[in-house]
Amino acid sequence: MSALDSATVWHRFRGELRKAVNESTWHIWLERMGFREVDGTTIVLEAPDDVRSWAQTRFGRVLTACAETVLGPGATVRIADPEETPPETPAVAVPRVQAPASQQLNPRLTFDQFVIGESNRLAHAAALAVAETPGLAYNPLFICGPPGLGKTHLLHSIANYVHEHGGGMTARYTTAEAFTDHFVAAIQGGDMEGFKAQYRGVDVLLVDDVQFLAQKAKTEQEFFHTFNVLHQAGAQLVLTSDRPPRDLDALEDRLRERFEAGLVCDVRPADRATRLVILRKRVAQDDVGEVDPAALDLIAERVDANIRALEGALIRVVAFGSLTGRPVTAELAAEVLAGLYPELSKKKAAPTIKEIQEGACEAFGVSMEALLSASRTQPAAFARQVAMYVARELTGATLPTIGRAFGNRNHTTVLHACRRTTERMASDREAYEAVHNLLRSLGGN
Ligand SMILES: Nc1ncnc2c1ncn2[C@@H]1O[C@H](COP(=O)(O)OP(=O)(O)OP(=O)(O)O)[C@@H](O)[C@H]1O
């Protein structure tokens, strides 16, 4: 089986599985499974002990059904012990074809789920237009704006739309960081042809956070060629960045000019009415139980920084309600949010990852050395997970960037830490308080 085949099988299997289970089952359990290989008609996954036994007993049938949808009747799934191939030493047995998490599409990020308001109307319309007629509407489409305002959501929506309605057209989502890592690995592994085939053979290429291409001369050059080959072939390019092309000072002029040649549109912070619709939609979809509409009004009113923070606030309010057995009312929401968000928004700039790490060391009484180490002993391991979660929420840094700042750990470790922290907050009062206090202390600085 070729490298691309394995990646496609994994991609489709994951998409099927994600559609087959509800959001919390996915995040708490199944998302933690990694891909190892396709062995004949068996998809081999790997997962830690707790997930492995749970997934096998509770979800064996669903896993098999998803495998059969992808590979045909008789396909099976085996879940292996990751200890045989530690996830952070991929050189041994994890196949080089494994798509970085950043390239895996989230089937739930679709146009249907995207709430349109004044702040994102143009970006949404342009994204939908390129999804419907790739290469013909605006090319490239460049979407820019601060973190957490839906740029990644729009890229995934385009890719999901093309996969579903594109009549066999192919779309590839990546981040500039994953592109860079992949390029470096291809050079080291002497597989530039394989690398080029993966990026230059698609109908739609979606690249998130292109500001990270700056000052990586070789990658930038390779990206420039990829861009030109695709553009000349009539393929669609969609790019996002935290700022408009003209402000990407560190990029070469020729690339900046290419970025500006199509349509540049921005996403801005959502207004209150849009924030409220987003919250209502999340409550309905995630099946979080009874939430008083006045509580949503209050969260929409208070949390205006970005949509990621808005969703984080909703999770915390609901978690607090369930931990204390209290109904989720405006009063409870006010209690949870008290002091936190106003202080955060007053603060001149978001805290840096370093400041978050220092805050976590102080809050949990661990040394910086322990926090950045690979040690799994407590309290360092929990402090590390919480600090990663807070960094994801407050800094807008990407998963690979956060991973690097925590002793060069990979992005799946960060993702796992964020999920684990959310999970613990919902079930453990002490964990909840720890996260809340750390967020508060950083906001109050
Ligand atoms: N208009 C919207 N409707 C519904 N959900 C939204 C909307 N905008 C953002 N979100 C949700 O907010 C969260 C953050 O959005 P997203 O990751 O797309 O932001 P981003 O602009 O790409 O940020 P970053 O630059 O940090 O990657 C996601 O869960 C996304 O689904």
UniProtKB/TrEMBL annotation:
GO cellular component terms listed in the entry, alphabetical order: cytoplasm; plasma membrane
Residues annotated as domain AAA+ ATPase: 137-265
Every Chromosomal replication initiator DnaA C-terminal domain range: 352-421
Pfam families: Bac_DnaA (PF00308), Bac_DnaA_C (PF08299), DnaA_N (PF11638)
Region (Domain IV, binds dsDNA): 322-445
Primary location: cytoplasm
Residues the record lists as binding ATP: G148, G150, K151, T152
Region (Domain I, interacts with DnaA modulators), start-end ranges: 1-85
One GO term of the biological process aspect: regulation of DNA replication
Keyword set includes Ribonucleoprotein: no
InterPro entries in the record: AAA+_ATPase, Chromosome_initiator_DnaA, Chromosome_initiator_DnaA-like, DnaA_C, DnaA_dom, DnaA_N_dom, DnaA_N_sf, P-loop_NTPase
Location in or out of the cell: Cytoplasm
GO molecular function, one term: lipid binding
Keyword annotations from UniProtKB, A to Z: ATP-binding, Cytoplasm, DNA replication, DNA-binding, Lipid-binding, Nucleotide-binding
Function: Plays an essential role in the initiation and regulation of chromosomal replication. ATP-DnaA binds to the origin of replication (oriC) to initiate formation of the DNA replication initiation complex once per cell cycle. Binds the DnaA box (a 9 base pair repeat at the origin) and separates the double-stranded (ds)DNA. Forms a right-handed helical filament on oriC DNA; dsDNA binds to the exterior of the filament while single-stranded (ss)DNA is stabiized in the filament's interior.
Subunit structure comment from the entry: Oligomerizes as a right-handed, spiral filament on DNA at oriC.
Family recorded in the similarity comment: Belongs to the DnaA family.
Descriptive protein name: Chromosomal replication initiator protein DnaA
The organism's taxonomic lineage, starting at the top: Bacteria, Bacillati, Actinomycetota, Thermoleophilia, Solirubrobacterales
